């Protein structure tokens, strides 16, 4: 009744009321409206009609935003005291959750990132922090996303920055990559290159002074810090790697199911898989009771969530190459039902990765 009266009043006083009731929402924003205290579906982009007196609204920016975690003092595993900060980029993927779950997005995400960064770095030595900065950043990104996905946010990028080493390690565990003064004559080079050059020069001078013969060969090992090596699940012909079929994937799921996993997830899923031939195949994962079940067909009773995904994307999901949240955001995973329950499938993916 109240809504009808307000709408009638707005019609009677039009076009004056239109000046206050019509709002334009750009493409990169969504408008969240509370009508008589109840939240409505996100509005926009385009022209949005607001009812005076009974509608309260808030704009949500969907563009990527950035903030920095101020440098803070940390003590590494080997006793070194460092000043470490980070630059973080994030965006809103669910406007409703971002309004309902947290008041200050940047402040809450900054605090979460700082706590996660501290938790990870105190378990690392100074050498590991210096060498594995990219890998630690990737780990930090995953941990932050696990904590903030229920807020409707997703972190896209984390870049760690070491401001200074305030105190060297208590034990000599850092090795040649610890901070050291510049090498005379090589001041213009990168610090790591200076250290390598100093290493080879010292070997040459030592050989010249001792008059010995051929120097002992130095060995160098390259490490890919961006993408850690993954072990393929199955092999064929002894050398050619291939991804498992859908039947093999769901057969691998069965041994992983447990009461603990059911307690973490507590939902049943119907998975409709688009095969390369154009046909569809249906499987189920029931993590609602007992030890859980998985296999071909539909679950007993009505599923909590229905997922639609291509066979290749399902393989990437189960092998850990694609995260459920990223698949949903990119449109490669279609969800019908509770999105929060759908994202809980990440617990199953983690269990499969640990089993491998």
Automatic annotation (TrEMBL):
Region (Disordered): 212-237
Keywords assigned by UniProt, alphabetized: Membrane, Transmembrane, Transmembrane helix
Cleaved signal peptide residues: none
InterPro entries: Band-7_stomatin-like (IPR043202), Band_7 (IPR001107), Band_7/SPFH_dom_sf (IPR036013), SCP2_sterol-bd_dom (IPR003033), SCP2_sterol-bd_dom_sf (IPR036527), Stomatin_HflK_fam (IPR001972)
Entry GO CC: plasma membrane
Residue span(s) of domain Band: 20-180
Keyword Membrane: yes
Pfam families with a match to the protein in the record: Band_7, SCP2
SMART domains: PHB
Transmembrane segments: 6-25
PANTHER family referenced in this protein's UniProt entry, alphabetically: BAND 7 PROTEIN-RELATED (PTHR10264), STOMATIN-LIKE PROTEIN 1 (PTHR10264:SF130)
UniProt record similarity statement: Belongs to the band 7/mec-2 family.
Name of the protein: Stomatin-like 1
């Amino acid at each position: 009744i109240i809504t009808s009266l307000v709408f009638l009043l707005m019609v009677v006083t039009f076009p004056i009321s239109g000046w206050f009731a019509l709002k334009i929402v750009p493409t990169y924003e969504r408008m969240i409206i509370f009508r008589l205290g109840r939240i409505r579906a996100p509005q926009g982009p385009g022209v949005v009609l607001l009812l005076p007196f009974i509608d309260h609204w808030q704009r949500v920016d969907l563009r990527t935003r950035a903030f920095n975690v101020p440098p803070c003092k940390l003590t590494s595993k080997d006793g070194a005291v460092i000043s470490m900060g980070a630059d973080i980029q994030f965006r809103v993927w669910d406007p409703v959750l971002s309004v309902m779950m947290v008041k200050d997005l940047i402040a809450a995400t900054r605090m979460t990132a700082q706590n996660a960064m501290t938790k990870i770095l105190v378990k690392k030595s100074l050498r590991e922090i210096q060498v594995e900065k990219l890998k630690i950043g990737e780990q930090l990104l995953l941990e932050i996303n696990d904590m903030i996905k229920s807020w409707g946010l997703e972190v896209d990028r984390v870049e760690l920055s070491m401001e200074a080493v305030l105190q060297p390690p208590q034990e000599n565990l850092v090795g040649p990559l610890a901070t050291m003064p510049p090498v005379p004559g090589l001041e213009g080079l990168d610090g790591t290159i200076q250290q390598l050059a100093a290493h080879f020069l010292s070997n040459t001078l030592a050989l010249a002074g001792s008059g010995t013969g051929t120097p002992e060969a130095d060995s160098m090992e390259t490490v890919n810090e961006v993408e850690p090596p993954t072990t393929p699940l199955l092999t064929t012909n002894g050398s050619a790697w291939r991804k498992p079929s859908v039947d093999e994937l769901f057969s691998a799921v069965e041994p992983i199911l447990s009461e603990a996993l059911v307690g973490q997830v507590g939902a049943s899923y119907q998975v409709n898989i688009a095969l390369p031939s154009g046909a569809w195949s249906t499987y189920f994962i029931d993590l609602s009771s007992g030890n859980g079940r998985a296999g071909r067909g539909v679950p007993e009773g009505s599923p909590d969530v229905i997922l639609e995904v291509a066979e290749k994307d399902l393989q990437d999901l189960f092998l850990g190459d694609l995260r459920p949240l990223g698949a949903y955001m990119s449109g490669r995973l279609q969800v019908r039902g509770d999105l929060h329950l759908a994202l809980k499938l990440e617990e199953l993916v983690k269990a499969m990765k640990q089993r491998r």
